[in-house]
Each structure stands twice: as C-alpha cells, then as structure tokens.
Amino acid sequence: xxxxxxxxxxxxxxxxxxxxxxxxxxxxxxxxxxxxxxxxxxxxxxxxxxxxxxxxxxxxxxxxxxxxxxxxxxxxxxxxxxxxxxxxxxxxxxxxxxxxxxxxxxxxxxxxxxxxxxxxxxxxxxxxxxxxxxxxxxxxxxxxxxxxxxxxxxxxxxxxxxxxxxxxxxxxxxxxxxxxxxxxxxxxxxxxxxxxxxxxxxxxxxxxxxxxxxxxxxxxxxxxxxxxxxxxxxxxxxxxxxxxxxxxxxxxxxxxxxxxxxxxxxxxxxxxxxxxxxxxxxxxxxxxxxxx
Amino acid sequence: xxxxxxxxxxxxxxxxxxxxxxxxxxxxxxxxxxxxxxxxxxxxxxxxxxxxxxxxxxxxxxxxxxxxxxxxxxxxxxxxxxxxxxxxxxxxxxxxxxxxxxxxxxxxxxxxxxxxxxxxxxxxxxxxxxxxxxxxxxxxxxxxxxxxxxxxxxxxxxxxxxxxxxxxxxxxxxxxxxxxxxxxxxxxxxxxxxxxxxxxxxxxxxxxxxxxxxxxxxxxxxxxxxxxxxxxxxxxxxxxxxxxxxxxxxxxxxxxxxxxxxxxxxxxxxxxxxxxxxxxxxxxxxxxxxxxxxxxxxxxxxxxxxxxxxxxxxxxxxxxxxxxxxxxxxxxxxxxx
Lengths: 292, 337
Hints:
The structure holds two protein chains of two kinds.
Chain A: H1 2-32, H2 39-57, H3 60-81, H4 91-113, E1 130-131, E2 134-135, H5 139-161, H6 163-173, H7 175-180, H8 185-207, H9 220-233, H10 238-258, H11 264-278
Helix pairs in contact in A: 1-5, 1-8, 1-9, 1-10, 2-3, 2-4, 2-8, 3-8, 5-6, 6-8, 9-10, 9-11, 10-11
Chain B: H1 3-17, H2 23-49, H3 56-73, H4 78-104, H5 109-129, E1 138-139, H6 155-179, H7 181-191, H8 193-198, H9 203-229, E2 231-232, H10 239-252, H11 257-278, H12 283-289, H13 292-308, H14 312-322
Antiparallel strand pairs in B: 1-2
Helix pairs in contact in B: 1-6, 2-6, 2-9, 2-10, 2-11, 3-4, 3-9, 4-9, 6-9, 7-9, 10-11, 10-13, 11-13
C-alpha cells in the first residue's frame, strides 16, 4: 500500500508534465492542423539555452525565462521560415519537414554541446516529504505540479476568456471568415506556434532535471508519450490532453514500479493502439462527419 | 521488356559489378541492397497510398530476428538454412506489417506517423521484455563462400551477391504490384477515398494490404543486414536509422523504385564519406562531428527537397528521359494530396 501511494504521487507529477507537453501538441494542431514532430528537438534546444544561461548566471529562474523565450522564438521562426511555405491541406510535407528539422536540431546540438548527458539541478529539493511513514511528493514535485497547473490554467483563460484567444480560435477554425472580420490570421498562426513550443519547453525544463540529465535526445521519450496522450485524449481536445496526461502518467509510474522500467513504453504503446483501434479520433473527440 | 527479365538483367549486371569493388565497398553494397529493399517498400507505401511510416526500421529488425532464429535452428546444407531464414523473415515482418496495416487502415497522416514512431522508440523495451536476447541482440549464422567459388571471391563479395539476389527477390514483386491492378487501387484510394469506395474499392483493405506488401521487402532487407553483419541488435534499428530510410525515400522521389535505389546508395555512402572527411578534423571537435554532420546535412536536405523540389531524384531521371520519346505511357505517381 505504501508503495502504491508513493508510485501514485510520482505518477501525478509525471502526468502533469505529460499533460503540459500534450497540450502543446494540441495547441499547434488546433492552430495549424499539423502535428509538430520537431516539438521534442525544439524543446531540447530551448533547454540547452536555459542550461547555458543558468551556468553563466547561476540563477535557475533566469535560465527558465530564457528557455521559455527561446522556445517561443524557435516556434515562431519554424512557422515563419518553413511551415508557412508548405502546401495547405497536405499532412505529408509538414511531417517530413518536421523530421528534417529534428535531424538538423539534434545533430546541431550534439555538435555544439557534445553527446554526453549534462547534469541539471532541479530548483527545489528532491527529498520527499514523509507523511505517516510513507514518502510522497518532494518539494520539486510540488513545484512541477504547480507550474504545470498554473500554465495550463493560464492557457485555458487565454483561449476562452480573452479577445486574443477568440482571435486565435477563429483563425484556427475558420481562417477565411476570420480574415474577412479583420483577424490577422498569419500572425495568429505564428503566435499559436510560439505558445505551443514555449509550453513544450516548459514541460521539458520541468522534466529534464529529474532524469538522467541534458542530452539532445533527452526529450524524445517525453514527446512519444505526450503524442500518445494527445492521441488518447483526442488531438482536438485540451481537456482530453489533461485527463489522458494524468492517466498515462499514473500508468507509466505504476508499470515502472510493479513490472519494470522497460515495460512502460510497451504499456503506453498498447494503450495508444487500443484507443486508436476503438476510437481513432481519441476519447474526447467530437464526432466526425460521415463519408460514404 | 517484362519486369522479371529486366530484374534478372539488372541483378546479373550488379553481381558482375561486384568484381570491380574492394571488400569494404562490397560490404557497403550489401548494406545498400538491404536499405534498397526496405526503402522500395517504404516509397511505394508513402508515394502510392500516402501512409507515412516512421517505423520501417522495426519491420527490418523483425525480419532480421526472424532470419537469425530460423536460420540458426535449421540443421543442414546452407541453402536450406538460408531459405528457411528468408521465409521466416518474410513471414514475421509480413505479419507485423499486416497488424500495423489493420491499425493504419483506420488512421490518417499524423496518427499513423506517431504510432509507428512510438513503435521505433519501444523497440529496445520490446527486445528486453520479450525473450529476444536483450540489448546484446541475436547472432545470425555465418554463410561462408561455397567451395566452388572460394578460389574466386572473398566473403564480402559473396555476401554482396546474396544481398543483391535477396533484394531482387524482394523488390521485383513490388514493381509488378505497383504497375498492376493493386497499384491502380492504391492511387485511387489516395486520390479520393469516397470515390474509390463508390467504385467498389475498399480503402481499408487496400491500405492494410499496401502496408503488408511494403513490410515484406523491409523484413527481407533486415535479413540481408543479418547476413552481412552476422548479428541483429536493437541498437542498429533505432530512430536515426528509421529516419534515414525516410530520407532515402524522399531523396529518391516518393513512389519511385529507381529513386529508392539512388536514395539508398546515398544514405549508405554519404555518411561514410562525410565521416572520412571529418576524420581529418582535430580530435575532440572531429569526435563531435562524427556521425552528426551527416545527419545534419540529411536533415537540411530533407527540408530543402520538400520545400523546393518535391520530386526528388526520380523527377530528374524523368526529365532526362523526357528528352527521348516514350514507348509506354508510365502511370503518373501522386506524391501528395
């Protein structure tokens, strides 16, 4: 039972990070109708920027802000420089260009910083609180949970309660009509990309210090799990990303604890395949229009 | 000229060409032949049905494991072991391809790409969980040069011969499939699923069948790699290798078999060539460039090709060929919707 409580608590923190990264995939899917396969490489580049600033100034928070800004800039640059030039309504070129971007970014990072794992210190202690003799969340886990929850709440407010959010949604759902009504659609798409990659960078910044360390491939597994989360919840659904993120986080934590660490990716793969076969649009997806 | 005859001529020419290469080049040729089989399957899948698989390396690995275990289990003369291994490679990869195809039939663009990506990432976990020898991988039997030929050729050249022959057996049916009724159905499904369904072509069956048909050559390619290296390890079939297969298909021009050949030679030879150049750089910096510079250049090339020149190398061939009058109208391939 003690073990279950510990694994459950660890799974919550992991799930929050997963949900945040999955939400970033949902944002870019909703604004531009592409899945950004380069999200992991871009987030890794942002974490390297944060690492360099933290190393230079000694302040975790300066590094965190730099990482977020670098992520937003990278997202905007990728949209302006590459994605905008591709034919619309064809998923293939977007995916292939994103794969090219992954190769360029990861190889570039490995050349610039070397392939070794660089240790990053988490901002708070990782020693868990003991409640009733059971180790539960550490201060760092609490910070991760709070940061992820705050950013997700802020994004929900932005999209649902502000004029800018309304313009973002309008540009995504009805670009032609939105343009006629005076929304600057291309600017909104760029902003969507910037928000999305910044959110992904935050997720990576929260995750990397708790794992092996920083490496060009450090975010790959997070991306694959977050993609599974986004698919399970439905690529169109922010609420689905949140629920599925917590669910998959718990699943990974429990499978790692009770079976083995190497069985966790298989469990996620099996769950994703099952959901795709039963409900290809995801659990919380709206119904699709019928064809023939 | 009929397709099997043309395939036979190309195979004989390629086998003759091995006499002009040193052992290391022959080893590279065997690797390129393995890539060619997998890339040919991938390029038909992507170019004709629009299903992007990032997981063809896993299908190759499945073929490699199937070959290694089946060929090791057979006691007898070497052609029997080879045939058993190849049959097992085709069966294992075809079965996995059929499973993936059943899922693919219900999925579009990004979903399928993500599912296959997850498959590649889960491969090391799978070989550690299933009884497949873990990270050490499995040993494949060694096929020495037969007695009659041992005075004539080295072992690398013999393996190149086997590789060329297996690649020919893997790719020729694919070429015939692509040119025939099945290819027409794949193009119909790519162009308009509703219209093809109204014409009595079931998109689900066509997509699943295309995935299985593209998985078998990939599995045979994995068997070829197992012959050339005498082992199958999960590390050899990681994400980088899987993306390299996509690069080869795109560089050659999606949907083109000839382009697949050019692309696979490119992704085999260019990394080696760049690493040779990098070896001249100073030690520590050179170590960082090693392997990475090639990936960087391939990524940049992938972006440039997709944004500026989507036809790939096959388009160049077509343009050269267009200078001469064609006897047959070749079916046009659609690379994107």
